[in-house]
Amino acid sequence: MKKSTHQEADPTPEQFAxxxxxxxxxxxxxxxAEALDVIVTRVHALVDDGAVLAFRDxxxxxxxxxxxxxxxxxxxDSLRGTISVxxxxxxxxxxxxxxxxTPDESLPGRPVDLLRAGRKxxxxxRAQAMAW
Length: 132
Known about the structure:
The protein is about 45% helix and about 10% strand. By secondary structure, it is mainly alpha-helical. It starts with 12 loop residues before the first helix and ends with a helix.
């Protein structure tokens, strides 16, 4: 398996604030490690592989994950493939998170809500269409 080389700069305070306005609750990498019963570096690998998105909070340096990207503390299964499609479409991780968390009247709701409801095909089709 090829290791992901996807690296991204930490968000600016303004970008983090924009994202935080859409995030109802945050979780952390150690919280997910505990839920999965794995070491923290395994969760870092999940982030690197695009199973979940994490963003460094500029106020304290802690990498935070929107809690809605998890189910029972574990990464939402359908998120990995969706992140892959968004990355292939040229979206940064920050742009991907903003898109996933922003309400879209044509769906209706937020793309992440559809993923949580098991409607990943519709979300991924929309993400692919945005690349054109």
